[in-house]
Amino acid sequence: MVRITANLYEEAYDYIRQDSAHGNCVMLVAADVDSLCAALMLQNLLKKDMIAHKLVPVSGYRDLERAKEQIIEKDEDLVSIIMINCGGLIDVKEFFDIESYTKIYVFDSHRPLKLENIHHNNINVCVFDDDRETEKLEKVLEAFESLTYNSEDNSENMDSDSSDELLENTRSKRRRLDEDQDLSRSARIKKRAQSNLLMNYYTQGAYHANSTAGIVYDLATKLSKTDNDMLWLAIIGVTSQYLHEKIDTTEYIRSVRVFRDDTARLNLSTDEEMAVINNEGEIRIEDEYRFMFFRHWSLYESMYYSSYVVSKLGLWNPEGDKNLNRLLAQMGFRLEQCKQIYTHMDVDLKDRLRTKIEEISPRFGLTELCYPSFTRGYDRKCVLSAADIVYAISALLETSPTTAVHFGAEGTWTENRDWRDMLANDAADDATNEKRRWWVKNFYKAYDALGKQSSEMVLHGIRICMETQQAIARQVFAAISKRLIKKHNNCWIMVVDGGPDLPVFGHQLTLFRMGLFALDILRTTSARLKPLIVTSLDEVHNVYIFTSMVAAPAFGETRRNISEIGREGTICNR
User: Fold this and answer.
1) Average pLDDT of the chain?
2) What are phi and psi of 129, to 5 degrees?
């Protein structure tokens, strides 16, 4: 148990299955696309094995505290706690103070892992992981256990002495001190090296391992329970990590190779078959452009609001607009055609798009406009890419009622659905709980949209995301042009505290996307890359929210972030 790698996935799942036969199971799920995909897959596995469970969304440590007080501490029959993209960075056994018969199963891509969760003596916590860091972690764990548990053993020995043997105890302590002083030079060097190894492990910076959805898909593969729906969810989860720059291109391509094999196995393989059989639900291997929603937007807008195209063509200034027009002209595409919705463009232009882009775009520095991806048919008439789903689900998660009103889409966010069971203990006048109300609703909207074969809610998310992307572009263009991104010794700081689009930036996910957009430009305009802190005023609650990220030299590369503590949060505005 403890750290569970691929060869132990099936055995660990058997523990969940066996324990849940005589107890309850709770699943705590973080509010991001990768987590939702992993939760849906795991929920499908549990349902197939008739394992009753309760799903609880969490957005941070405050929600974990709430789940502990309202659910975990009150459930005497709780035997399994499953944590998805949460829990890996804290000592979960100490945090929940669980009974000896309760086990915690952690699926978390955040790194570095808390070593208390994965040391060999911790039989109550199982952390699912891949094999790629095994060698390094074994050395770190050896140092951790040597320094931590040897020290605890000495402390316990001292505490066990009785008061009647005080004199002997004092002499014993002196002997121990003498022994410590007499440690051989090699032992002291080893101890110092172990301390340095632990310090380096925890100070290396925050980063992400393989997608959690990818880990759950590997589990389903071990159990021989994969299907097209699970494959699609795994693809979406990994794509989310890639688009949000949490994994690099090498890691992404490694997963794509696996997905390509499974796509060929689970889907129709020949063009002739695809031509005569309804493609609803079919997954196809298809390269994706680095401009978003081109199937649903106009080609011009799709390129204009893509951070990659923006950064290469300089679209934040008037000269950049001319560059985009020249690019399209050299491709032989009339501007009026490019400004039509893509589905209304001339068929011959759509057929020539890939060839012309590959021929012309390198002249403008656009050398990496495509990456390998997948599409799936919905509703017999709609084709959505994995990137489309990622952006749409992110929009459903992050759009507050205020933002929905700003975009004229409030109807979907104020529909009459009963959330009283989830929110029964929240105080109506508490600003934090007010925010919790809408993000919990958003969580389930996004969860439902992912789990359905209907494209209706996903397309709604796409429309909202288009509006959000335009607001992000406007804000970043203004900040770059007016030099509002302030350069400090060790970082850049971008503050959003006014303007008509201010209500849009009330969620960390939106701020993070805006930060990535700005970093794409800063990569091309700045000689030295620095971390970026993005903060926005929440006028409703009179606080500033913020997030931070580290700039990698190029898209598809990653750098470890500053400490996870302080990476995002809220600051009171006084």
Assistant:
1) 85
2) -150, 165
